[in-house]
């Protein structure tokens, strides 16, 4: 089973890297770009076949290591077709 985890900063948390990307896009001539926020995407292949167990394990992974839950949100998507 494949999992995709999207990790983003919570609203209200400053995002200096997103601001740098926004400024760089403006310098490259891209207009109308406002409020860029950046995040992380993590793909994990799991041998688990039970979706509920997989989601529980992934939640533990996010809570303990992958996301800083003080300033970040995470979203878990499971591809159950494999």
How would you characterize the largest beta sheet?
3 strands, antiparallel
Number of extended strands: 3
Please state the overall shape, judged from the principal axes of the Cα atoms. elongated
Distance between the termini: 6 Å
- Write the CATH homologous superfamily: Phosphoribosylformylglycinamidine synthase subunit PurS
Q: Which consecutive residue ranges, at least 5 long each, have pLDDT under 50?
A: none
Provide the β-strand percentage band. Answer: 25-35%
Average pLDDT works out at: 95
CATH class: Alpha Beta
- Secondary-structure-based class equals alpha+beta
Strand order, sheet with most strands: 2-1-3
State the helical fraction.
25-40%
Structural summary, described in words:
The protein is of the alpha+beta class. It has one domain (2-79): Mth169, Chain: A (2-Layer Sandwich), CATH 3.30.1280.10. Helix content is 34%, strand content 28%. The protein has 2 helices and 3 strands; from the N terminus they run E-H-E-H-E. Strands 2-1-3 form a 3-stranded antiparallel sheet, covered by helices on one side. The protein is elongated, with a radius of gyration of 16 Å. The mean pLDDT is 95.
